[in-house]
């Protein structure tokens, strides 16, 4: 779909770019749909915030700070005044949290709530999805699997330990994009991609665009995720690699910047994890002991042809 | 709603603006919702085109050419491949018709089709809604009332003469924004506004922002519209002033440019109509013989507070 809407030589990126003089204008549009993206227990203010986070996360991955935003809302005819206020306040709070200015927008009537957010920023250069070099190390900005677990709990009534359930649900309702870390460290990155379509999709896309092989030798899971998977008879890879909606990002960098990147991450409290390395070849493989298993792209694709 | 999403000193405009160096980036977002904006007989390709026209029309009013666009689609899970192709081809055709480049976008699942279009252009200056001067003449880029009549025919099964019905329906399905005229004549305009929220809304907003009184002494109706109104027992003012969805615009200009503007309009085949003049005072009045009746704003407001 996206390919047909774009240009002939279309290389998929996290954000769209156009130039004004020497300045690159970075643009991203993202839509949050009530019936699709909003579990029944989610607060409207968190839904509004998440519609912003989805866009901010792409800017974070590219190391660009969003400066302006425009918003289009669809609201059902019967929506209450108090819900409209909650939406309006939600956008004001989110624009303060992520330090951009809402320029305006429009409201429309629709069958369900739809929040479409478009953010803008400027930069001299962005880090692309292609660009990973042989010998680079691969990082993810956080552990994976909490969001998919949270969705299993919210949508399929799966059970887990109280503290885990809280953490998993919070990762669905109030995800935290890594904007400050992305902006201040992009100079060290050779390639990056927002991982909200699923970690397996992200890794495969980056490896493919970079024309390299990605080896994952440290899966960014956590003991409590494996435990939740086991007790609910879910394949743990499904939660960690194929869930999506984690507003983290994956990046590659030369080994020589490992120490400085890790130091910066600590000072910004961004829990980065070294998950593997880039080598010659193609595809993505998970290394466990001496065995390599191919990791296919099973992430989240809307109507992709 | 929009006021609360915007800034403290919010003056409503057709487009949003931010600056990069000395260049103004013009941005507009507009959403077309299947259940709200798409009469059952409308072709998908025309719906797609109209979602673009709604944005282009605001650019036309401000005299700026859109150069880039991004698109967000909500599509129902069950949509057919052939409809997806029609949507995709529709966007490609519309981007060619209005000469801008689609940078990308995203697709989402939703209960109904929703097309959200955001267009971008650059300019050194735009014509504002405020700016009309006492003594200026007021123009509209086309006759009004066809679209409202078309909607009466499509949605409320009203009847009319065959040629009129065709013209009225065509104005709903394939509206023509006045982009070339707006871009090439903006240097003569003192104020402009897209009229798609209804002519009464447009005139009241321009008069109020410009701190002047607008006198309408030549209502931009047509004999066939009055005839349709009469035979269907509809108040003609409702069709002409309060309908909306006409992707025309209203502009004011000094008398000294009347001749050159009319000459340019003829050469671009844009049917401009001189509808009145700007004077001291406030409000909008329709002058008929020696009588002045106040024209209130009864146009189309979505959830405006």
Protein described:
2 copies of one chain form a homodimer. Chain A is α+β, with helices and mostly antiparallel strands and 305 residues long. The first copy, chain A, folds into 2 domains: 2-123, 60s Ribosomal Protein L30, Chain: A; 137-294, Phosphoribosyl-aminoimidazole Synthetase, Chain A, domain 2. Helices cover 36% and strands 26% of the residues of chain A. The first copy, chain A, is built from 11 helices and 12 strands. Chain A has a 7-stranded mixed β-sheet. Chain A has a 5-stranded mixed β-sheet with strand order 1-2-5-3-4. In chain A, helix 3 runs parallel beside helix 4 (81-97), helix 3 (44-62) packs parallel to helix 7 and helix 5 packs across helix 6. The longest helix of chain A is centred in the first third of the chain and has 19 residues, at 44-62. Chain A is globular and about 60 Å long. At the A-B interface, helix 1, strand 1, strand 2, helix 2 and strand 3 of A face helix 1, strand 1, strand 2, helix 2 and strand 3 of B.
